[in-house]
Design goal:
317 residues; alpha/beta; ornithine cyclodeaminase, domain 1; Rossmann fold; 8-stranded parallel sheet; 11 helices; 34% helix; 24% strand
């Protein structure tokens, strides 16, 4: 639909135009390929407009420019609407408003799934999933596409949410997916642990983590006990500037269980062969994909091009 020459892509259309397979391919290629022109990303990565005192809201804004694709983007989100404004990089005239609900969920899931594809220990993936919110279903779909997912155990705050998710995903994925009563039951014996909650207190204890586990810390708060960092062989993030300021990385830096020099790599450095990935089957590897505005805009541009019937371009173009 167009509004005054500006294309508006609503959530239903984004879902139609961006299947999980496309998101996985675009995100993996973005990590793996050197850019012909470096994206322009400001510091700090996020602008917070604090409206808590009067309205009980926080407005968050991210932006970047992708010169190689000829677009810039502004992502605006909070507790209500969330969307990405795409602009022509040459004129800064608005091209489109793209609903960001499904796009955000798929981008987040794709980051975790492609990281697991590269960094999970050898063999079938047994997933311990902590959290049953909006990110859980796309993550499970993406992991099923990208890895040899063989079993899922789900823990969450409420029984109803984890049972409903387990029943739906077992039928959809045709895999053993079960709800469990505690985080410990989900985590013990898992080869991949994914946390995607709104918690801001430790949920996962170090003693539950097996040698060789890949941990995907995907929530915005603190979900891991700080002493887990003493067992981690490699800390890998999508974007250090973002991750150092929030979530488990920020909590570990405050607690002194991690220092900045403990960072092993950003995901792109591993995918491009600049830094080592998994080197031993017993390494405990932590991956923190907090979300990259460059990939948000990349996916939004992909959706925009498909909506117009323009041939989608590779991530690196």
């Amino acid at each position: 639909m167009e509004r005054s020459g500006i294309l508006y892509v609503d959530q239903a259309e984004v879902r139609r135009l961006l299947p999980p397979e496309d998101a996985l391919a675009l995100v993996e290629a973005d990590f793996a390929e050197s850019k012909s022109e470096t994206p322009v990303v400001p510091k700090p990565r996020i602008l917070r407009v604090d409206l808590q005192a009067k309205f009980g809201q926080v407005l968050l804004i991210k932006s970047c420019a992708l010169p190689a694709r000829g677009v810039a983007g502004v992502r605006i989100f909070g507790s209500g609407d969330r969307f990405i404004v795409l602009l022509d990089i040459h004129t800064l005239q608005t091209l489109a408003w793209v609903d960001d609900h499904w796009l955000y969920q798929l981008r987040t899931a794709a980051e975790g799934a492609v990281a697991a594809k590269r960094l999970a220990p050898p063999g079938p993936v047994v997933l311990g999933l902590v959290g049953a919110g909006v990110l859980a279903r796309p993550l499970l779909k993406s992991l099923a596409l990208a890895t040899s997912l063989s079993e899922v155990r789900i823990a969450s705050r409420t029984t109803a949410s984890r049972v409903a998710l387990a029943e739906a995903m077992q039928q959809e994925l045709r895999l053993p997916v079960r709800a469990v009563e505690s985080v410990e039951q989900a985590v013990r014996g898992a080869s991949v642990v994914a946390t995607l909650t709104t918690a801001n207190a430790p949920l996962v204890e170090s003693k539950w983590i097996e040698p060789g586990t890949l941990i995907l810390s995907m929530g915005n708060g603190q979900e891991l006990a700080p002493d887990i960092f003493r067992r981690i062989s490699k800390v890998i993030v999508d974007d250090w500037e973002t991750c150092r300021a929030m979530g488990d990385i920020a909590a570990a830096l405050r607690a002194g269980t991690m220092v900045e020099s403990d960072l092993h790599a950003e995901i792109s450095e591993v995918f491009q062969g600049k830094k080592a990935g998994r080197q031993r089957s017993d390494e405990v590897i932590l991956v923190v994909p907090q979300g990259m505005i460059t990939q948000d805009v990349l996916l939004a541009d992909h959706v925009y091009r498909k909506a117009l019937g323009i041939r989608p371009t590779p991530a690196s173009e």
